[in-house]
Design brief:
The protein is an alpha/beta fold. It has helices at 2-5, 75-85, 89-97, 100-107, 128-133, 149-156, 196-206, 224-233, 239-249, 305-335, and strands at 9-16, 37-40, 50-56, 119-122, 142-146, 165-168, 181-187, 207-219, 252-258, 272-281. The protein has two domains: 2-56, no CATH class; 75-281, Rossmann fold (3-Layer(aba) Sandwich), CATH 3.40.50. Bound molecules: S-adenosylmethionine. Residues 75, 78, 82, 98, 123-126, 128-129, 146-148, 151, 170-172, 187-189, 192-193 line the site of S-adenosylmethionine.
Length: 342
C-alpha cells in the first residue's frame, strides 16, 4: 500500500523517536500501530540518530489545491455546520474520531510543562481538547476561542472549564496581542479554514519567543472513494503541507506525530479526521516573516442562498462517509485476528 502512496516525492529527514521504543519503517504506513515519527526538513539535519527516507508527497492523484476550498471549508458554512453538529458533537463525532487517548497522545508534543503557562485553544469548540489542556495548565490561564457560539455554549457547561476565558473569534484573525501566549493549541479546526496558511501565521504571531504551536488535524486519504468524499467535504491536508505551512510561517523544529484511533491498527488510507499533531517553536519575537495578501473569504460579502444551501447539503452528505468509516474499521478490528493487518 505504501507504494500506492508514493508518486510525487519530497526528501525529508525522518527521525525515529527510539526513546519511546517505537521504531518506524516505510512498511508501517499501514502497519499495526501509529508510530511516533517526526519529520524535519533536511535543513535541520543536525539531529542525531536521523536517517533519510522518501515520504509520500502525493497520493495516486493530486488533491484539490488548498486555494480551491471544499464545500464546507468556508467560515459561513462551518458556522451553520456546527449550529447543528454542536448538539451531538461530543457524543457522536468524538467517540469515532477523537478519543481521550488520542487527545492526550496528540497534546504530548505541546510540552504543557507548567501550570502557569498561558495557552490559547483555537477552534476550541465544546472544549474537548481544552479538557486535556487543563490537566496540565491552570484553567484560568487558558482561553478557548471559536467562531461558533453554539459550540462554545457546550464548553461553558463543563465544570473543569469554568475558569477558562471563552471567546468568539476567527482563527485567521486572532484577538490576542503579538507575543502573548506560551502555547497555541488547535485541534480539528484547520479543516474548516479557507486559508490555513493564514491561521498558522496567526499562531506564530500570538506566541511568545520560544513558545510552541501544536496543531492537530486530518490527513488526506489515499483510498480513492475516501479521497473523493474528503475533497467534497473539507480540507484534509497532506503531512508535508502541514510542515510547509509551519516552515513558511517561520516556525523552527517542526515535527509531526501520527495519531489515530486504536482500532484502526495504523490504517491511514481512509484519511483520519484527527490524523496528526504538528508542532513548531517560535524562534524570534514579533510577527511572522511571512507576508500574505487579502483574506480568501470575505464573510461580509452576500452569498446566493441557493448555492449556499446546495454546497452545505452536499458537504454534509460527504461528511457522513467519515461517520461510517470508523464503524467499518471498528467492525474489521473485531473480526480480523489481533496481530494481523486490517
Ligand atoms: C471539529 S471541531 C473541534 C473542536 C475542539 N477543538 C475539539 O477538539 O473537539 C472544529 C471547531 O472549529 C471551529 N472553527 C471552524 N472554523 C473556525 C474559524 N475560522 N475560527 C475559529 N473557529 C473555527 C468550529 O466552529 C468547531 O467548533
Amino acid at each position: 500500500m505504501a507504494s500506492v502512496m508514493l508518486s510525487g516525492t519530497e526528501k525529508l529527514t525522518l527521525r525515529t523517536l527510539t526513546g519511546n521504543g517505537l521504531g518506524f519503517t516505510a512498511s508501517d504506513f499501514h502497519g499495526k500501530a501509529f508510530p511516533r515519527v517526526s519529520f524535519v526538513t533536511t535543513s535541520s539535519a543536525r539531529i542525531p540518530n536521523s536517517r533519510s527516507m522518501v515520504v509520500p508527497k502525493c497520493s495516486v492523484s493530486a488533491s484539490r489545491p488548498t486555494s480551491q476550498p471544499r464545500f464546507i471549508q468556508h467560515k459561513k458554512e462551518a458556522f451553520w455546520f456546527y449550529r447543528f453538529l454542536s448538539i451531538v458533537y461530543d457524543h457522536v463525532i468524538n467517540p469515532g474520531h477523537w478519543t481521550e487517548d488520542m487527545r492526550d497522545e496528540a497534546l504530548e508534543p505541546a510540552d504543557l510543562s507548567s501550570r502557569d503557562m498561558l495557552v490559547v485553544d483555537v477552534g476550541g469548540g465544546t472544549g474537548f481538547t481544552t479538557l486535556g489542556i487543563v490537566k496540565h495548565v491552570n484553567a484560568k490561564n487558558v482561553t478557548i476561542l471559536d467562531q461558533s457560539p453554539h459550540q462554545l455554549a457546550k464548553a461553558k457547561q463543563k465544570e473543569p472549564l469554568k475558569e477558562c476565558k471563552i471567546i468568539e473569534g476567527d482563527a485567521e484573525d486572532l484577538p490576542f496581542r503579538t507575543d502573548y501566549a506560551d502555547r497555541y493549541v488547535s485541534a480539528g479546526s484547520i479543516e474548516y479554514w479557507p486559508d490555513p496558511q493564514r491561521g498558522i501565521k496567526e499562531a506564530y504571531r500570538v506566541l511568545k519567543l520560544g513558545g510552541k504551536a501544536c496543531l492537530i488535524g486530518p490527513v488526506y486519504p489515499t483510498f480513492w472513494l475516501s479521497r473523493f468524499f474528503a475533497d467534497v467535504w473539507m480540507l484534509f491536508p497532506k503531512e508535508e503541507e502541514y510542515i510547509d505551512w509551519f516552515q513558511k510561517a517561520g516556525f523552527k523544529d517542526v515535527q509531526l506525530k501520527r495519531i489515530g484511533p486504536k482500532w484502526y491498527r495504523g490504517v491511514r488510507r481512509h484519511g483520519l479526521i484527527m490524523g496528526c499533531s504538528v508542532t513548531g517553536v517560535k524562534p524570534a519575537s514579533g510577527d511572522s516573516p511571512l507576508q500574505l495578501g487579502p483574506k480568501e473569504e470575505d464573510v461580509e460579502k452576500p452569498v446566493n442562498p441557493f448555492v449556499f444551501l446546495m454546497r452545505f447539503l452536499l458537504g454534509a452528505l460527504a461528511a457522513t462517509w467519515f461517520v461510517l468509516v470508523p464503524i467499518y474499521m471498528w467492525l474489521k478490528d473485531q473480526i480480523v485476528p489481533k496481530g494481523q493487518p486490517i
